[in-house]
Amino acid sequence: MVVTVSVRETRRSTRALALLGIVVALAVVVLLSIALGSNRLSLTEVLHALFAYDGSYSDTVVRDTRLPRTVLGIVVGMALGLAGALMQSVTRNPIADPGILGINHGAAVAIVFASAVFGVTAPGHLVWFAFVGSIVATALVYAIGGGRGANSPMRLALAGVALQAAFVGINQAMQVIDTHALDKMRFWLVGSLADRDLSTLTGLIPFFVAGVVIALLLGRSLNAIALGDDTAHGLGANPAVVRVISILAVGLLCGAATAACGPIAFVGLMVPHLVRLVAGQDERWVLGLSVLAAPVVLLGCDVLGRLLASPAELQVGIVTDVVGGLVFVFLIRRLRTVRP
């Protein structure tokens, strides 16, 4: 009994320290995101622009360019981190990620189609197409990767890679047919936080909020279905309903994130694994810490892209592909006992 209490107290202390560390890391990376760029600003200039704005050049750079980009990175990071944690939990697949399984690219296809064919450009309108595209992509992944191997991480990953390649090809075909769409979508399709303003989020906030709230409320139910469907029923959870609601939440989060800044992969893969190292398997903590840790990773990659290519910059989607690709290879090597 004493040992059990000691273990619980140790785990609580670890989680509390992890929460504090993530909050501090988020504050640091937010300041770096605002300060670093083609024109580097000091901490004093950043704080002056945030709390004592007087219209100077540095204040204008912070308020009009850097701050909207940082806020967008926080919101999109939260969405991608939660979507990845939800997918890994509900599918029991350690390499599930909206980018790897082609869900973000499914949303991107719907957005490019809406823009090229119907002339839709407002993010608040595009998000509806993105939501439908992400849901359709999720259904296709499970249809192609289903059957007797439906629970195989490798099989689902291969289905996602195949779909992602198909979606990329469709996007490229639409862009070649419509050169105007090509010029307009070039940077957006690689995943970018650049050249965005807060008006981008205006029509997307309800989708982000709904997705985040639904995801966080599913924590207890996800803990139940992790014990098996029969046990989950005994604990009062309906596994089928939980999975459907989870898919809808993933669609909301991925659709809004993709509409805001394009398809960004691997954030939803990396963050839940890092969080589980300190939080354990309690999905309430995994989801809660992922929503804070994912913006740290996304903004960190965005800052890294600015530093590596200064005075130009690498788009954040390129940096997350490189960093996340290395993490993906590491995870695949750990799955040696899993048959495709």
UniProtKB/TrEMBL annotation:
InterPro entries according to UniProt: ABC_BtuC-like, ABC_transptr_permease_BtuC
User: Which biological process annotations from GO are given for this protein?
Assistant: siderophore-iron import into cell
Q: State a single Pfam family of this protein.
A: FecCD
According to Swiss-Prot or TrEMBL, what is its membrane topology? Multi-pass membrane protein
In the record, which residues are listed under signal peptide?
Answer: none
Q: What is its main location?
A: membrane
Subcellular locations according to the entry: Cell membrane
GO cellular component term, pick one: plasma membrane
Which family does the record claim for this protein? Belongs to the binding-protein-dependent transport system permease family. FecCD subfamily.
Q: What is this protein called?
A: Iron complex transport system permease protein
